[in-house]
Amino acid sequence: MSGLGTRAIVEINQAANQFQSSIVIKVGKRYIDVKSILGLSITLFSNETYQLDIHGPDEAEAKQAMNQLFHKHGLPLADLIP
């Protein structure tokens, strides 16, 4: 894995863990907890469009942060599930 890939995984994971909300990524038929660095490391770079499902008390802030990080690292993100 390239340094950029590792950096993206760590940044996304650390940001997700700052929120109380549940943050789940859907890739194909798989659902991965974004707060799991292992789950991200085996899923994040599968050249697919990612869909996030975020629910909880700080979901608006979490959605904004995840959207910014995915965009920053050039990871295609489908519309967030409302």
Automatic annotation (TrEMBL):
Pfam family, one: PTS-HPr
Residues in HPr domain copies: 2-71
InterPro entries: HPr-like, HPr-like_sf
Gene3D superfamilies: HPr-like (3.30.1340.10)
Domain of life: Bacteria
Official protein name in the record: HPr domain-containing protein
